[in-house]
Amino acid sequence: MDSITLQQHPFIGMLFDELKDKYQLTRRENEVLQIFTLNGWTNRELGDALNLSEKTMKNHIASIQRKFNVNSSREIQAVVFRSTLLPAFLNGSDSQNSQEGKRPYAALSS
């Protein structure tokens, strides 16, 4: 599954919406966060994808860093992983969820 498809997956959208609410991200910051986290692109690549300048991307990333209380873009990715993806996979692997078929991330592995 490529990253564009992954970004469009409803489960992924739900996880990023939770982050948006928790950290009071703007719609654009949330969009930048998703693309950045799922692709690992540079500010220039992000800007090209969103038709914005590299400087604007730097400003969005800096704003996200402030809201996440981190100092680097890699720390942003760590917050996303620890806050959303890791708990989702750990909670999804318990026997109750597996027995009831409640595995919203199952389509991610196909």
TrEMBL record:
Q: By its UniProt entry, which SUPFAM superfamilies does this protein fall under?
A: C-terminal effector domain of the bipartite response regulators
SMART domains for the chain: HTH_LUXR
Q: Where are the transmembrane segments?
A: none
Q: Which domain of life is it from?
A: Bacteria
List the residue ranges of the region (Disordered).
Answer: 90-110
Going by the UniProt record, its keywords in alphabetical order are: DNA-binding, Transcription, Transcription regulation
Q: Report the residue ranges that make up the HTH luxR-type domain in this protein.
A: 18-84
User: Could you identify this protein by its name?
Assistant: Response regulator transcription factor
What organism does the UniProt record list as the source? Cohnella soli
